[in-house]
Amino acid sequence: MKLSHIPVCLSTCLLIACGSGGGGGSTTRDQGPQIEHLAGGDATVNHSNPSAFSQHSANMTDAERIRKFNNGDDFFENPWVAKTASTENRDGLGPLFNNNACQDCHIRDGRGHAPAVSDTEDGTNFSSMLIRASRSIISDADLLAMQNGTKANVGDSSVGGQLQQDAIYSITKEANLRVSYSPITVTFNDGFEVILRKPEWHLTSNYANQGYDFDADTVFSARVAPPMIGLGLLALISDADMLANEDINDTDQNGISGKANRVQNHVSQQVELGRFGWKAGQPTLRQQAAGAFLGDMGLTSEIFSTENCLMHQDDCSSSPNGNGDSTEDYDFEVNTLVLDNIEIYSHNLAVPVRRDAYSNSVQQGKALFIEAGCTSCHVESYQTTTSTDHPELSDQTIFPYTDLLLHDMGEDLADFTVDNDSVSAAVLVEYQASAQEWRTPALWGLGLTHTVDPEATLLHDGRAQTIMEAILWHGGEALNAKNAVLDFDSNERDALISFLSDL
């Protein structure tokens, strides 16, 4: 059960200048109501406990929409089962899958974590992360299709576009996965040291003995489940506001050259701006949910209606599926009504209120964040567009700290080969996103990450265990910002973390 939803009252705001971002992707705003603590506008919820990411929009009052949200929560939270089970409404899991419940990846609707390791054992629990696979040597036609946004990638011939480390019954699991870490020490200019952990991925195809080992040119991409809050608000940032921050050729010569990913909408059959996922590979939350159902859980839907079995996976292809039930005949496993409810749910998981936004230390940290150049990518504020489908999220001033664009984050954060070599920035792995490019993640809720799940880890592959570690892995377009942080003294570091922990 969800905790009660307590709307945050705008009338209590002080009328002073707050120096925060305004609409349209700007980073400064005229004097006005002090509202930056309301990160999600009127939809912001007043929660800071372990259930802080699991509340619906505070201004959602329509009983039918709340009912659909709660139904979506049920299908998001509870496990799906194999076809032979008696639960018809949530059967059809697999044959190949990564997890059997959305909530087991997005823990309490927050982020997942990289596998835990010990001094003697590698990490093997990949239950809240996944690994994508893409060929780097492809035909000119495939490359053109990726560049045009009509083809996502070309998957590995052994496992396809995503490794599934689990399976139902006696189905062959696609791969065995392990991760280990080696330490890297980063020293600030005042001598303060932080030890980072560099991941080393150990991947083995279970089809190698059948002549289907990983392709020599396959690029792998490890991805932790991201938090679910505020996604519906991000969906209502206008294309124009996103593209206003795009600067592919770095015409202003500030070292930041973000670009939008152009991807296929499988419903409209049009190419649209990608917004969701670590490489902005999905244009809508409905398609993102359907893609996760198929890729992560082996569940077909009206959008992706074909099981992800390859030709050599005979046991997968012949396994029973969960299409239809005793009362309704349809050709996929997640029926349209369930997908409708999941869509409402994923749009309306609310952003929590900031706890100490106007304290001196937090405001000092914000100034340092801006001074270091972080807001070049982590754009502070937008005004959402009007949507009749999602009235709670319409016309809101929001503070997500993202531009939703792709940025080259450098070799250290690049996708990798089976030998753990970093992959060139020239290699495309997801539509127009290269191996070194990542979508700027929204920072709202960052300070509650470990309140929601103490085991949660940061960055796309979960290598960072603290906010400072995540900062120190920044490279590529963010290298100058990281170097600026390395020049901070102890008090400045504390202020920066105070600000980020308040988001």
How do you describe this structure in short?
The chain is of the alpha+beta class and 503 residues long.
How many angstroms separate the termini? 25 Å
- Element order: H for helix, E for strand: HEHEHEEEEEHHEEHHHHEEEEEEHHHH
How many domains? The number is 1
- Beta strand %: 5-15%
What's the Cα radius of gyration? 22 Å
The count of helical stretches stands at: 13
Could you tell me the mean pLDDT? 92
Number of strands: 15
Which shape, going by the Cα principal axes?
globular
Strand order of the largest sheet: 3-2-7
Q: Characterize the main sheet.
A: 3 strands, antiparallel
Helix content: 10-25%
Structure commentary:
The structure is a single chain. This protein is of the alpha+beta class. The chain has one domain. The protein is built from 13 helices and 15 strands. The strands form 7 sheets. It has a 3-stranded antiparallel sheet with strand order 3-2-7, with no helix packed on it. Strands 1-4 form a two-stranded antiparallel sheet. Helix 6 packs across helix 8 (336-348).
